[in-house]
Amino acid sequence: MQRKNTRDLHIDIANKTMSYIYKHIDTHINLDHLASNFSVSKIHLHNIFKEQLGINIYESIKSIRLQKASNLLLTNKYSTITEIANMCGYSSHSSFIKAFKDRFDQTPKQWRSGGYESYSDAILKKSLLKSSLPNFDETKVKIVKTKDRPIYYLRQKGYILEEAKQKWRQLQAWVYTNELDDCEEIGIYHDNPAITPHDKCFYIAAVSTKEKVINTNLPSNVLEGGLYATFDISGGEKEEVAWFIKWVYYDWLPKSGFETTTAPSFVIMHKNHFLEEKEIESTFYLPIRSV
């Protein structure tokens, strides 16, 4: 029992640490303070994080900053490179330029001017995901303001279909165990699959419910409310939501008069195609801000 309790505690610490990083990516992230909150040493926090998620904390922070920046450089045409650097936690323009060039072999300016295309093409050629867009009607986009949603979730590293199915089966069993009737099933995308190697993308399978949950060892969090553009999407077995993300960020968004934020996009699944082997039927939420 002690071993299981320790495992659950470590999973909780690793997930809360990752959630904290995503939420505060625009700030200086103080790991001493974070470790103190968990009543562990900083070295122990590093070990727990790497054991559970397979990556170093500092490398993870750096990677998330640059992934966010690489996306914002393409979607937020009204923001300067310095503003985007600040949005991703870089206080120094020169340090951002150096880190970006080390990662992508080009400067942010070159990336923004079309250099990203060859980088993206190389990623897409290696993709194991289906490569068709779901169906949608661009004329029916809605702008909405959402409220906070409490969620229980499982985190997955890599866009791998069979692993995603396994995560959703685990969540389905959890829902049945807790006899929950009123749930939303939500897929959360922290990374853009068009410019992030798919083995480094994080996907979150989540359930949101207003019912009281008694029996759980799942990590919990809040999917924060905000301003979103929503799209109703549908499709058969050849379609893939991840490719809709590429279209919405790089085609719709630059023409929309909006910019995006560092918040993740997500889908609320009206039919869960991971569980039911049915067509996609979801509403996609894209975080936006006025410019």
What would you note in describing this structure?
By secondary structure, this protein is α+β, with helices and mostly antiparallel strands. It has helices at residues 2-23, 31-37, 42-53, 57-75, 81-87, 93-104, 108-126, 161-177, 241-256, 273-276; strands spanning 135-136, 142-145, 149-157, 183-189, 202-209, 220-223, 227-235, 258-259, 265-271, 280-287, 289-290. It starts with a helix and ends with a strand. The mean pLDDT is 90.
Write the layout of secondary structure elements.
Blueprint: H1 2-23, H2 31-37, H3 42-53, H4 57-75, H5 81-87, H6 93-104, H7 108-126, E1 135-136, E2 142-145, E3 149-157, H8 161-177, E4 183-189, E5 202-209, E6 220-223, E7 227-235, H9 241-256, E8 258-259, E9 265-271, H10 273-276, E10 280-287, E11 289-290
Antiparallel strand pairs: 1-7, 2-7, 3-5, 3-6, 4-5, 4-9, 7-10, 8-11, 9-10
Helix pairs in contact: 1-3
Enumerate how many helices there are, as a single number: 10
Shape: globular
Which spans have pLDDT < 50 for at least 5 consecutive residues?
Answer: none
Strand fraction equals 15-25%
Distance between the termini: 53 Å
Radius of gyration over C-alpha positions, nearest whole angstrom: 19 Å
Average pLDDT for all residues: 90
What structural class results from the helix and strand content?
alpha+beta
The level of helicity is 40-55%
Report the sheet with the most strands, covering strand number, pairing sense and barrel closure. Answer: 9 strands, antiparallel
What's the total number of strands? 11
The run of helices and strands is HHHHHHHEEEHEEEEHEEHEE
